[in-house]
């Protein structure tokens, strides 16, 4: 079965709770390894799969085995063995996401270097899935703190890496603790004899799947990545849009909702952008593509499926705003640029926990992806000044300015001001809505430059009392202070100078605002999303004294917010070599 034959995940027989998550995270069609693995694993068959990292293996075994899980039973039913703690954490996070709508579902990552007491406590509470490295799993078996006698399935992930790291004996011993009738799935990028011997000993009439990587080097595309840190991704993207010589661009995100949200945010910052996703009618999609082709639209924010087959010659840049789930998707994405012999550029945003996928992409494309530094304020200021000069020169060459020259003479006579000062005043007025000099607070800082306490800040505005607001997002949602400041100042249109102390807790945060919000502002901000979680802002009903007590024990960061004024509509800097006539 190919991925083309499996039109959607809904046809594969997965549980409704699993399909709900698939829709939420934006998976639209199964990858080849998923399309071929899910049916036999759902049927209870053993499976031997040969596939590279980055082909979608984790979902290929997690989705069907979670469907077969019984969440009401509070003991380990599924064991997933991985060679490294990094992979164990990555797989556990994915499994937790896939199973989040299963009632009472718990997954536990188990690896060396982690507090054993914490692992014991979670095991005693009851977990259905254990993801771990062979060494630490064996430790628990020796201590009798982990029971595998009621397992229904075992997954051995990256078996060839287990072999290289000397874990094969531990894997054999662990498998001996599982029930004789358990289901086994073994995945490996290569199939050395030692791995095949394990498969023959422990897999019963397995379904064999081999996925060949169809990816190859994209010769005409220069690839770079930016490691996500400090700056909000949207702010980093804005800097890139300001500084790069861009003709047309496709920005890839994972979900259909994200296409709309990001396109709207870019429009608000003055860039001509539109979404492209599977929820749009065919007529709407065709109209969007036609606008991109003819140049009335510069940026399309798309999902993988919506952009499939897209062929627009003027696309000079592809930005992977969200890293793809597999390497084939990455190659398909960057293949949208560098066409017809033209050079293309691909930029990949990579969070620290996504470095494994970056390495897999490098192997798949057979070339290194270079790290990039974001454009500095000076570079962006120089670009804006250059564009301004070109605009002035073009006006001088193309317009009849006699009336305005006489007007300048009149101003000089009436106010006794030199032409240079008058020209400077006019230039200031022209750039007032979009300053040529990039201000320090135009973007959230990579590192906080002010660490003054809230009381020190309020000394500058004596007589004003802070109002404490509660936001229903916290550390568990991956929230950092910069996210809060960016959302409130950029999307909530709150003056960044009125944002006081920010205290982030596990499931919520408290924000002090010098200027109380009116009902309209509260309504607008409630619907703002950070990391796909709504802020749901409300007045903190616990009161200032209790909030102060909470702050003393809070481990969240305290920063001074930086914001920006809404930008007017602007065009992308054009690549002169591909500029349209």
UniProtKB/TrEMBL annotation:
It catalyses: ATP + H2O = ADP + phosphate + H(+). Its main location: cytoplasm. CDD domains: DEADc (cd00268), SF2_C_DEAD (cd18787). Residues 38-209 form the Helicase ATP-binding domain. GO terms for molecular function: ATP binding; hydrolase activity; RNA helicase activity; RNA strand annealing activity. It is found in: Cytoplasm. The keyword Hydrolase applies. This is ATP-dependent RNA helicase DeaD. It is an enzyme of class 3 (hydrolase). Residues 541-581 are annotated as: Disordered. DEAD-box RNA helicase involved in various cellular processes at low temperature, including ribosome biogenesis, mRNA degradation and translation initiation. PANTHER family: ATP-DEPENDENT RNA HELICASE DEAD, DEAD-BOX ATP-DEPENDENT RNA HELICASE 47, MITOCHONDRIAL. GO terms for biological process: cellular response to cold; ribosomal large subunit assembly; RNA catabolic process. It comes from Pelovirga terrestris. One of its GO terms (cellular component) is ribosome.
